[in-house]
User: Fold this.
Amino acid sequence: MDECNKSAIARRFRGFLPVVVDVETGGFDPQQHALLEIAASIIHMDDDGLLVPAPTLSCHVLPFIGAEIDPRALAFNGIDPDHPFRDAVPEREALTRILTPIRNAVKSSGCNRAILVGHNAAFDLGFIKAAVERTNFKRSPFHAFSVFDTVSLAGLAYGQTVLAQAAQAAGLGWKSSAAHTAIYDVEQTARLFCGIVNRWRELDPDRPWETAQSP
Assistant:
C-alpha cells in the first residue's frame, strides 16, 4: 500500500497500530510466573486527527500448568487466583479473546503490525510473548521487540515516571483503590498516551506525517 492510501493512524506511526496493554501476574519472570489478567485498548484516530482509546478488552487468566505464583505479587495486585467468581479462562482462550480483535484492527486500519504501548512496556510484552509461545498461538499481532513506553513519554512530558503520578500530572486523576487491576491501569495508560501524543500534535502544527492525504 503506497503512502497516500494509508489510513491517518498508519501514516502517523509508520504502519504500526498502537495498542495499550497491561498484564497482572504472579511475579516478574514471564517463563515461570503465572499470567493472571490481560487488558488491552486499541488506539484509533478521530476525524480531527486526535488519538482516542477504544473500549477496553479484558480477560482473567488461569495460571498455566506448573506456573509459580509469588505471594508478594498477589499482595501487590490484590488478585485471588482461586476466587470462585473470577471467571478466568486458559491462556490460549485469553489470547484469542484479546489478540484476535487486535489483529483485525491492524488489518482494517491498513497497518502492518500492532505496537504495544505500556507503562514499563517490556514487562507486558514479555508476558504476552511467553504466553504465545507456551500455547503455540499463531500470528501474534505485536512487533517482536519495539514498544512505546509511557514511562519515557511521561518523563518527557510531565517529569513523572510512576503511572499514578504521571496520570495526576496529566489531569487524569487516580483512584488508588482501583489501581493494579489490568482494566484500570490500561485505561489510565491509554488516556495518558493519547494525551501526550495529542499534546505534541498541538505543539507541532506542521505535522509532516499528515502531508500525504488520501485521495
User: Anything to note?
Assistant: The beta strands are 16-25, 35-45, 51-53, 57-60, 113-118, 142-149. The domain at 3-207 is CATH 3.30.420.10 (Nucleotidyltransferase; domain 5).
